[in-house]
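Design review, sub-item: ligand-bound model
Attendees: FS, YL, KQ
YL presented the inputs for the magnesium ion complex:
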Amino acid sequence: VKASGKDNILTYQDIEDGSHYLQALEMERDLRYALRHDEFELYYQPIVSPKPFQVRGVEALIRWNHPQKGFVSPGIFIPVAEQLGLISDVGRWVLVRAITEIQDYAERFDLFLSVNVSKRQILDGSFLEALEETLATTSFPPHRLHVEITESEVGGNVYELQQFIQALKTIGVKISLDDFGVGTSSLSYLQSLRLDIIKIDQNFVKGIPENKFDRALLEGLYQTFHTLGLDIVTEGVERPEQLAFVLEYSGSLIQGYHYSKPIPMEQLHHYLRKTVITQI
Ligand code: C2E
Ligand code: MG
Ligand code: MG
Ligand code: MG
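KQ shared the predicted structure:
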């Protein structure tokens, strides 16, 4: 293959290591375009305390409406954005947009706002930079902001992570450990991180209430985290039987389809108004 122009180089690489490379390049171009042309949107998923029912907060979840490919899941493009070094720009956009959209509601309905942060944003300092800037230019109270760190990412870089958490604590922002149980971190390591909230991954909830082993496991987790003084969010609660189990064994907050899927801002507006009026 003669690599005389850009296209030829691509063809060459394509032979070398499959279509992967082409797709990544294509996505890089598209992600950069998306950032500049407002193709991202935030959905929000309510996080509730079940009894008495109250919406306590919302998690911001990014959505990409690709002009040709349609909806692209964050599970697919976030890891690519991380690899390409675009996550810091995406992350800044998420933070600014979420705070801007939610701040009035947070005040009016007494809510927290949870945002996801990826390892790279922690290590390159871009998240803290964006955070300080955003808090300085808005009146959003830091204590209403929760930063979600994923367990599978916290391993390694222990020192950097501890510094990051310390900085958040100084600002007054809360730290939430996302997807607990997916990673391999030991409990004692996690405890050393001085977390505020632990989010139990939806995999622990799938087999509830049918599976005896899953029931014992989840109950054990609740006991452990209570003992450690952590607030708990149980993710992925879909069915009434699952809700009943969580109610019986914990004071956990709940995030799951049982209450609501992630929804666009306009629907969240209606959800909050409706739930405050009817107190379902
Ligand atoms: P996550 O932070 O653990 O978010 C929860 C995911 O679980 C969301 O998927 C949500 O739609 C889904 N979920 C919530 N309740 C249920 C349920 O009852 N059943 C089931 N089956 N699923 C439920 P989503 O929105 O597709 O996001 C996937 C992941 O992408 C997120 O997982 C997070 O790791 C990442 N992500 C999303 N937005 C951002 C962002 O702004 N920044 C970063 N760095 N990552 C993000
Ligand atoms: Mg999350
Ligand atoms: Mg999660
Ligand atoms: Mg997850």
